[in-house]
Every structure is written in C-alpha cells, then in structure tokens.
Amino acid sequence: MNVSQVVFIILGLVTLAGAAGVVLNRKLFHSALYLILSFVGVAGLYILLEAEFLAMLQLLVYVGAISILIIFAVMLSRNMMSADYKARNTDWGLGVFVAGGLLAVLVLILLRVQWPVAESTVSSGTIAALGQALTSPAHFALPFEVASILLLVALVGAVIIAREK
Amino acid sequence: MKFVLDFWVQLGNWLEGVLSGWGVPVWGVNLIIDIVLAVILLVVGILAVIIFTPMERKVIARMQDRPGPNRVWPYGTLIAFADAIKMLTKEDIVPRKSDKGLHMLAALLVAMPAVLIFAVLPFGRGVIGQNLNVGILFILAIGSIHVLAVLIAGWGANNKFSLLSAFRVVNQLLAYEIPMVLCILAVVLFTDTMSMQGIVERQTIPFFVVMPVAGFIFLICAMAEANRSPVDLLEADSEMVAGYMVEYSGMKFAMFFIAEYVNMFAVAIIISTLFLGGYKFFGLEDVAPVLSPVIVFAKACLVIFVMLWFRGTFPRMRFDQLVSFSWKFFVPLSLVNLLLAALVVKLPIANPKAAPWVEGAVMLIANIALLAVTFFILNRAARRIEGPSALKRIVAVER
Fold first, then answer.
1. Cβ distance A101 to A24 under 8 Å?
2. In this complex, which of B132, B148, B151 lies closest to A52 when CB atoms are compared?
3. Per-residue pLDDT reduced to its tens digit, B222-234
4. Which residue among B97, B138, B152 places its CB closest to the CB of A83?
5. Which residues fall within 8 angstroms of residue B148, CB to CB, at 6 or more apart?
6. Mean pLDDT of chain B
7. Cα A80 to chain centroid, rounded
8. Which of B365, B359, B329, B357 is nearest to B342 (CA)?
9. Subunit contact B163:A56, Cβ cutoff 8 A
10. For B277-319, what is each residue's pLDDT tens digit?
C-alpha cells in the first residue's frame, strides 16, 4: 500500500464520517457542519486525482456558497435559537425504503461494471483545456449555456416569488 | 553573481544541500524544508499582528488628532506585547447556554484560513510557499472557511448580537464576494494565468493604473471581506457591541484579533500582487532580488495605510446601503469592466506581449469612459430622487 492509497482511505473515512454525522446528528446546525466536513473530504479526493481546479471549485461552491446558504436557512427556521431543538422525522420508513433501493442499485453497478483505469497521468494544463471545452460549440458550449439559462430562470422565479405585490 | 540574482531561491537550495550533506534521505529533506517554510509563514503572520496593531492605533490616533498609545517604549510601538500579556492573563469565559464545542471550534477555525492563504502569496521572485497554478482560486476557496468560522462563532455563542452578526455575514460577504471575483477575473484575462507568481510576472504595468475601476472595487470588497471599517458591519460596535465575538474573552478573543490583522495583511499582499505589480518595482527586483520581499512589504504597508485612512475618514455605512452599494453599484460596474477587459484582450494588436502599453492604454481609456458614464447615470438618478443638486439650489435662491 503506497502513500496515496493511505491518503485516499483517510479522506474517504473523513467524507463518510461527515456524511454519517449529517444523518445521525439530531441538531440541524451540527448536521450542516458535518455536511461541510464531507464536502471538504471530497475536495481532498479531487486533489488526490490531480484535479486541483475541480477541488478549488468544490471548496468555493459547496463550502463557500451552498453550505453557507444551508446554514442560513437552518438559522432562519423556527425555534432554532433554543439549544434543545431536536430534528425529528416521522417518515423514516419511507426513507429507509428509498435509501435502501438506491444502495442496492449502487452496489449492483459497482459490482457489475468494469471500471477503466487511466494509464498516463493527467497533463497540468487542465484549466485551459477545460475552458476551451466549455466554450467551443463542438464540445459543451450548448449544455453550458443551457445551464446558465436554467440558473437565470431560477433567479427570475425567485424574484417573482419574493416580490411584494 | 548567480547567488545574488536569485538569492531566496539559492537560500532554499543551500539548505537542501546542507541537509543532504548530513545524509538525510530525499523525503526527509523535503519534509524538513516544508516544515521550515510553514513555520516561517506562521511567524510572518504573527509578525504582521505585532507590526500592524501599533501602526493602526498610531495612524488612527494621528488622524483623530490625539497621541494614541504612548506608554510602552518607544512611542508605544511595543503595545502589541502588552496586549498579548493582557489577553493571556484574562479569564476564559464560556457562556453557560452556549454550544460549547462550536464556541471552541470557531476560535480554532478563524485564524486558519488567514495563515493558509500565505502559502500561495508571492513575497518575492521564487519566494512563494507553493506556486499553485490555481493560486487565486485557492485564496477564494480558503477565504470561505473564514465566513464559516464567523457563522459558527455567531451561532455558537447563543447571543442575540452574535446571531444578528452571523446573519449579516452571509448577506455582506456574499454580496461583496461577487464583484471581487469579477475584478479578479479581469486581471486573470489580462495575465492568462491564475498562479499568483504568474500574475506578477506578466504584469508589465500595474493593473491599478490599467484598470483603476477594478482596483478600487477590489480594494473596497477586500476591506469588506477583511471586516475593516467603514464596511465592518459584522462587528459594528455602535449597533451590536462586537457582533460575533461579543462572547469571547481571553485567548479565544485573541484568536479573532490575530485573524483580523493577519487577514488585513494577507489582503494587502493580494492587492499589491494583483493590482500593484507585486515584487516588481521599476526593475529593482532584477538588480537586487534580495530586496523583493521588502518591496512587497512596502506595498502592503501602503495598502494598509490607505485602509486605515478610509477608516479614519468615512463614517460606517448603514447595512441596507452597504448591501445595495454592492449589488446595485459594484456588481454592474465590475461586470462591464470584465466585458471591456475581454474586448481589449481580443483587440487585433500585432503582438500584445511586445507592446503591453497599447493594451494598457486602451483599457485605461475604456475605464475612464466607464467611470464617466457611471457618474453621469448616478448624477441623473440622484437628481431624479433629490431634485437639482444642492449647489444649483443655492444658486437659484440667490438669483
């Protein structure tokens, strides 16, 4: 077992521990913080894969924006100021069913698919290549633009909902 | 001569040579050098606190026409040590109904990003902890941990003022991060790289001259991120005591204090790297590379002085004004600036690398035009809201 495998196991454990913390914790605010730990672990995995740009974006978008917004929403919800607020879920039976089904599908896929392994290491100029691919019509220009229009629609929708009549 | 030319790089190589001479294996040498680097960067952070606390107090005092700290020898310049002793001897108070774990975690987290950022800042040619090719993105990503720490601090204390401050964090810092990133993008477009050292190397004319609009917006946004007055609404002491750090005392408060000054220093170095040419100073860095950290430090001091000047001059903004200032003024302005930068970069100039002056001049003219248009629009909007300007009203009355 070489160094990168040890690091992978540690990062994987951190990610999984964070994810477990999210679902096992009874305090919503603590769950949100564990979610951030999980995101950081995933960013570490990206660095291990030599995808530094992706890792930085993972930190910037998931830790910097999405988690903060989740925490903000948690803080705005009712009774969150009192420390003894406990999260409860009455639909846990349905949750177990859906999650169990998803787990079964994932395990089946993991067992059946022959995963290809890249032979050479990734070249260092990934950012430029990524930028080219996102903007060239031959590659991902269309999905990229569609995604931005989707975000725009979401923005406009949020403004319409929040606007005072 | 080679030794003098890249002194700091040679220093590293020399240390490497000495260690291998002692029979240390390669990984050991790398580990020791990394640890030495980390310790140096930490010390730089602590030094920044020791230097800039008295500087801030003295400069602000002079601006307010009072002597400032003048008891600790000489001229109160060692006040930071007195502060440190005071903090160390204070009682550590944890509120009974607070979330104790989070209360502790926030104090640990808050200083971490500020020091981590030092790892990618170029203190001179080759004097950089790690020349990441996504350096500037790293800074932005790590900066979000600071937001998180403030949020946790505000939440964990179980105090009304802290929680209000935590709400403000999200509102203010997200609002100011967007124009900041847009300004950085304009710089990245010009330099074609995201590595901090690369940005300095390809910066023939300081970008503050080339695009003053972006430079100014970045300065204000960076001040908001570093929580400096007049945009320090997170701890606005006249409104909510000290915001998120109201329940902290002793060394835990000191962590927040240290984080603020280390952040200020880091922000000053980022500004001098992105907009003031970093370690370049009219070719001095080629003649005497030994001096390049001194150049960076001098530029950082200049930026910090401007920040203090702002603090001494402007009153604190109202919170809703602060947020709309960013969303309605900075965001459109930096968007247009980014658009202009993209157009200028794509100009059909024969060889932009050979003649950076042409590109720079075009961008400067575009920026001045942008400013003129902005002030024209603002002026008209102001007139629509408030009627003719005060001066014109006075003139009209006298007639």
1. no
2. B132
3. 888 877 777 776 7
4. B97
5. A36, A63, A67, A68, B109
6. 80
7. 24
8. B359
9. no
10. 877 777 776 676 677 788 888 888 899 999 888 888 888 877 8
Give 3-state DSSP helix, strand, coil % of chain A, rounded to 5.
Answer: 75, 0, 25
Task: Give me the interface pTM, i.e. the ipTM.
Answer: 0.74
Q: Residue B358 pLDDT > 60, yes or no?
A: yes
Peptide linkage before B388 cis (omega within 30 of 0): no
Residue B124 φ/ψ, nearest 5 degrees:
175, 175
Contact A72, A29 (CB under 8 A): no
- Which residues in chain B touch residue A72, judged by CB atoms under 8 angstroms apart? 167, 170
Q: What mean pLDDT comes out for the span B139-149?
A: 84
Closest CA to B305 of B329, B280, B276, B334: B276
Q: Which residues contact B363 (CB under 8 A, 6 or more apart)?
A: B190, B210, B211, B340, B341, B344
**Taking CB atoms and an 8 Å limit, are B163 and A124 in contact across chains?**
no
Q: CB-side exposure of B301: number of CA atoms within 13 Å?
A: 11
> Is it true that the peptide bond before B206 is cis, omega within 30 degrees of 0?
no
Contacts for B289 with CB less than 8 Å, ≥ 6 apart: B4, B5, B6, B7, B8, B124, B125
**The predicted structure's pLDDT at residue A153:** 94
Could you tell me if A37 lies within 8 Å of chain B, comparing CB atoms? no
The closest alpha carbon to B188, from B178, B205, B176, B200, belongs to: B200
Residue of chain A with shortest Cα separation from B168: A72
Residue A7: the pLDDT is: 86
Distance (Å) from the C-alpha of residue B387 to the closest C-alpha of chain A? 27
Question: Measured on CA atoms in the order B107, B110, B115, B119, is the torsion positive or negative?
Answer: positive
CB contact under 8 A, B170 and A67: no
Q: Check residue B1 and give its pLDDT.
A: 35
**How far, in Å, CA of A106 to CA of A100, rounded?**
10
Which pLDDT band, with edges at 50, 70 and 90, does A121 fall under? low
Task: Determine the 3-state secondary structure of B371 from DSSP.
Answer: helix
Interface A:B, Cβ pairs < 8 A: 64
Taking residues A128-152, report their average pLDDT. 86
